[in-house]
Amino acid sequence: MHKRVAIIGCGNWGATVANLIANGLDESVFGDEILMYTHETMVEYKNKKRKLSELINHEHVNPKYLPGIEVNKRIRAVVDFTDLTHISIMIVCLPHQYLNALKNIDFIRNGINKDELMVINLSKGLVTDESGLPITPSEYISRLLGVNVSTLQGANIANEIADGCYAETLIGYHKEEEREIYAWLFGKRHFRVSFVKYNPTIEMFGALKNVISLAMGIIDGMAYKSKIKIKVSSNTKAMIFRKGLVEIMEIAKLMKYDNVKRLVFESCGVADLFVSCLAGRNYKCGQLVTDYSGSNILNELESNFNGQKIQGLGTVEHIHDYLKHLNKINEFELVKMVYEVFHVTGNVEPVYKYLEK
């Protein structure tokens, strides 16, 4: 029997991964289609309003989240969890804010054997558990579904991978069978996969780097604004990068995650932080903050990203509250600065204070 694959999420990263897997799919193992759970929305296409699912299935395009890239014909968009029948592999690419929706999957009605189901998380961010503590997406999904959840994290800018640019990633897996299956699915000529045994530290890096990426974007935005009264440069950005990496590692250790020093040199660590400080939505959001101010700044910023979530904005709120609860927020000045810019002042005044300390 084929191992049926379902991707939960049709956004920029989900659509990219669906194409990545579908191109060169071994149909003898995985069948001839990949299901992609799609949040239905109306999209302007060739001067007409069309359903996104119809565009994916009939026109083989995803103009909202992956414009300019042909959608592989093996991909079939579905708009209801009841359509995710008899799946063997679930790939989660939802924004972390929406992971709770997974509880609506009826495993019995859908003919899904939980004992054999493989689940791998590709979402980045932090989720607050029932006790108010931040946990990683794979930990949250595991508790929600009652299954082990692997993770794929790395220096992966979606649009570049969709264009076929060379990249690498890291998968944290639970069983050897999973490692073999995920190597078949994700490994491509231009997309190289490394493996380690599952460790939630992998995702902690992926979440926290978005906060530092916001900071780097802010600094870069300030560098090109004549109204800014402090000079910032490549030296400043190098300082932010170093201090950000230190804070990431210290927070991970504070939260009792292990193997921090080893995993930081994998693609999920310093490599992901590096690329996120060069490109990506969080970096671009940080750049834009100098153009806005006021209490509505979050909505104004997110309006620039075509419905895509800026994961760092929620993550910095979660981690700030956690550090404040421990009475340690003043030990993490970069996190505190980013939080104050987006969630307190709505302007770059906290950056001046941070740089002048």
UniProtKB/TrEMBL annotation:
<feature type="binding site">
    <location>
        <position position="309"/>
    </location>
    <ligand>
        <name>NAD(+)</name>
    </ligand>
</feature>
<dbReference type="InterPro" id="IPR011128">
    <property type="entry name" value="G3P_DH_NAD-dep_N"/>
</dbReference>
<dbReference type="InterPro" id="IPR036291">
    <property type="entry name" value="NAD(P)-bd_dom_sf"/>
</dbReference>
<feature type="binding site">
    <location>
        <position position="281"/>
    </location>
    <ligand>
        <name>NAD(+)</name>
    </ligand>
</feature>
<dbReference type="Pfam" id="PF01210">
    <property type="entry name" value="NAD_Gly3P_dh_N"/>
</dbReference>
<dbReference type="GO" id="GO:0051287">
    <property type="term" value="F:NAD binding"/>
</dbReference>
<dbReference type="Pfam" id="PF07479">
    <property type="entry name" value="NAD_Gly3P_dh_C"/>
</dbReference>
<dbReference type="GO" id="GO:0141152">
    <property type="term" value="F:glycerol-3-phosphate dehydrogenase (NAD+) activity"/>
</dbReference>
<comment type="similarity">
    <text>Belongs to the NAD-dependent glycerol-3-phosphate dehydrogenase family.</text>
</comment>
<dbReference type="InterPro" id="IPR013328">
    <property type="entry name" value="6PGD_dom2"/>
</dbReference>
<keyword id="KW-0560">Oxidoreductase</keyword>
<feature type="domain" description="Glycerol-3-phosphate dehydrogenase NAD-dependent C-terminal">
    <location>
        <begin position="201"/>
        <end position="349"/>
    </location>
</feature>
<keyword id="KW-0520">NAD</keyword>
<feature type="binding site">
    <location>
        <position position="124"/>
    </location>
    <ligand>
        <name>substrate</name>
    </ligand>
</feature>
<dbReference type="InterPro" id="IPR006109">
    <property type="entry name" value="G3P_DH_NAD-dep_C"/>
</dbReference>
<dbReference type="InterPro" id="IPR008927">
    <property type="entry name" value="6-PGluconate_DH-like_C_sf"/>
</dbReference>
<feature type="binding site">
    <location>
        <begin position="9"/>
        <end position="14"/>
    </location>
    <ligand>
        <name>NAD(+)</name>
    </ligand>
</feature>
<feature type="binding site">
    <location>
        <position position="311"/>
    </location>
    <ligand>
        <name>NAD(+)</name>
    </ligand>
</feature>
<dbReference type="GO" id="GO:0005975">
    <property type="term" value="P:carbohydrate metabolic process"/>
</dbReference>
<feature type="binding site">
    <location>
        <begin position="281"/>
        <end position="282"/>
    </location>
    <ligand>
        <name>substrate</name>
    </ligand>
</feature>
<protein>
    <recommendedName>
        <fullName>Glycerol-3-phosphate dehydrogenase [NAD(+)]</fullName>
        <ecNumber>1.1.1.8</ecNumber>
    </recommendedName>
</protein>
<dbReference type="GO" id="GO:0046168">
    <property type="term" value="P:glycerol-3-phosphate catabolic process"/>
</dbReference>
<feature type="domain" description="Glycerol-3-phosphate dehydrogenase NAD-dependent N-terminal">
    <location>
        <begin position="5"/>
        <end position="177"/>
    </location>
</feature>
<feature type="binding site">
    <location>
        <position position="158"/>
    </location>
    <ligand>
        <name>NAD(+)</name>
    </ligand>
</feature>
<dbReference type="InterPro" id="IPR006168">
    <property type="entry name" value="G3P_DH_NAD-dep"/>
</dbReference>
<dbReference type="GO" id="GO:0005829">
    <property type="term" value="C:cytosol"/>
</dbReference>
<feature type="active site" description="Proton acceptor">
    <location>
        <position position="209"/>
    </location>
</feature>
